[in-house]
Amino acid sequence: MVRLDPIARRLRQLFAVLDTDDDGFVTWEDHQRMVEAYAENYSLGPDDPRLAALAEAYWAQWLGLLAKSTPGRFRLSQDEYVAAHRAVGYDTDRPDLLENLAKALFAVLDSDGDKRISSDEFAAYLTFRGVSGDDAPLVFQRLDLDRDSYLSQREIARSLRAFHLNNDGLHAPGGIFLGLH
């Protein structure tokens, strides 16, 4: 039996979240359904710039994965998805992919537009993601790196980067921004 490192295990979990139609593959349509879920939950209309930024961030993620997979593929199996994610180079080749996703997610979650995510805004996000309200303070605390009682765009970006790059355990808190809990 092959023992997977924590990053590969997290990416397999992410694959399961993104495979929204449970067909054993991830496609652009799966990513679109994620964007549509945000639109519905946060009442984002088709002309809302936050929705456009989120869709663009997911599209860039998808193109980044396709660029690192077998040419001509427009759907990725779990193994292909994990391999493509590992090859994207979020820390060197394409750090903008995670920054753009963090920026788009931050804009959606910052519902009052004050340039920070409060614990109430984060709790609303966790409800959207189906995470128990009892877990909200602990998750928030793990993400609030500067301990100012708010989440910044930088803290979201750092948590996304840690999810993709740190080989330090299965439950990296940045996974919450990708649908893992």
TrEMBL record:
UniProt name for this protein: EF-hand domain-containing protein
Keywords associated with the record: Metal-binding, Repeat
PROSITE patterns: EF_HAND_1, EF_HAND_2
The keyword Repeat appears for this protein: yes
Chain ranges of the EF-hand domain: 6-41, 97-132
Lineage, opening ranks: Bacteria, Bacillati, Actinomycetota, Actinomycetes, Kitasatosporales
PANTHER family named in the record: 45 KDA CALCIUM-BINDING PROTEIN, RETICULOCALBIN
A Pfam family reported for this protein in Swiss-Prot or TrEMBL: EF-hand_5
SUPFAM superfamilies xref list: EF-hand (SSF47473)
Keyword presence, Repeat: yes
